[in-house]
Amino acid sequence: LISCEFLSESLKHSIRLEASSECRKGFEIRIGKQLDMAKPTDLKILTRGYGEKAEYFEDVELVKTVVKRFYSNYTDEDSEDVVSHFVKVAKLLEEFLLLAASEAALELEAFVSLADVTATISQGVLSCSDGIYRAIDVFLESHRYLTETEKMEACKVLDCKKLSGEGCEQAARNQRLPLRIVVQVLFASQLQIRDTVTKEIKGMEEKVVEEEEEEIGVLSDEDEMEKMSNKLLGLEIENHECVVHRWKKKKKKKKISLQQT
């Protein structure tokens, strides 16, 4: 199996040498088929420029292209096994977004475009948005000259409701984030606390109900045993009365017989 690093290098060379569109498409498809095995540095190869700009992030469109190639390999009828591949690619893009965010040369528009793709792919696949938050934090750190409006633009893909408890705690204290985002984080944190408390209360109520049902069950068994015991006692008394009655009747007959003689 040819590595994604080699395929990425080959695709960049084919573009630089102005190879045919079919040649470029072939490399894109091959990278897409094994994108879940790629590393963030493999994707960085696709974004870098040429010559003096060979080590800089110049264009993220090629990354978006190979991501589309990856998803075109799957259909709605595919088995649930493909979910693991989707998770790997979602994590790969989060790691790549974090790597790209540290580059001072990466423009805001390119970061937002890449972050939007990452958020879309992560939705429904990853349980939290902590990876995207970390990338945004790094981008704001490496681009301190951004205005408040530009910072809001960089943060627009962040789903505060999907931040973990730890993520909310960090974001709430993060002075690099716009104030509006911090407020959203605090609100999301309050909702998480409310949901947690609600679940705990519900769990305690269910436990109390179960204990009460068990106690009622024990009492029901005791009542049933008492009823059976009383019934047996009643039968014993009834039987005893029958025996006494027969004995008296027999004794009376014997007395009459003696009198006749």
TrEMBL record:
- Indicate yes or no for the key word Nucleus: no
Which Pfam family is an annotated match for this chain, by its short name?
NPH3
UniProt keywords (A-Z) are:
Ubl conjugation pathway
Q: Which residues form the NPH3 domain?
A: 1-192
Any one GO biological process = protein ubiquitination
Family in the record: Belongs to the NPH3 family.
From the Swiss-Prot or TrEMBL record, give the protein name: BTB/POZ domain-containing protein
Per the UniProt entry, what species is this protein from, by scientific name?
A: Noccaea caerulescens (Alpine penny-cress)
